[in-house]
Amino acid sequence: MTIVPILVLALGTFAFRFGGTLMRDRVTMPDRVKELLSTGAVVLLVALVATSALAKGQGFAGWALPAGVAVGGVLAWRKAPFVVVVVAAAATTALLRLAGVA
């Protein structure tokens, strides 16, 4: 019963991606539109990070999780290796929770 919607979504995804490949040379976007799309992607990613870092369920996640995300963000901004970013963010959150910071 669930295989039909899965196949329809897979076919639709493939069609969108294939259509983009076919239309790449035919459609041109102004530089301003490209800039706005890039900015929109960054804003969407920041909103996702903020929502994930600040909320847990229906309430505030506590201070340990946003602090870990902030440490990871600073390390990523400073171009640290991905593994270092993830481990430092997790360690910061874990150590703060161990210290009693909720």
From TrEMBL:
Protein name stated in the entry: Branched-chain amino acid transport protein (AzlD)
Keywords, ordered alphabetically: Membrane, Transmembrane, Transmembrane helix
Keyword Transmembrane: yes
InterPro entries cross-referenced by the UniProt entry: Brnchd-chn_aa_trnsp_AzlD
Signal peptide start-end: none
Higher taxonomy: Bacteria, Bacillati, Actinomycetota, Actinomycetes, Pseudonocardiales
Keyword Transmembrane assigned: yes
Transmembrane segments: 6-24, 36-54, 60-77, 82-100
Taxonomic superkingdom: Bacteria
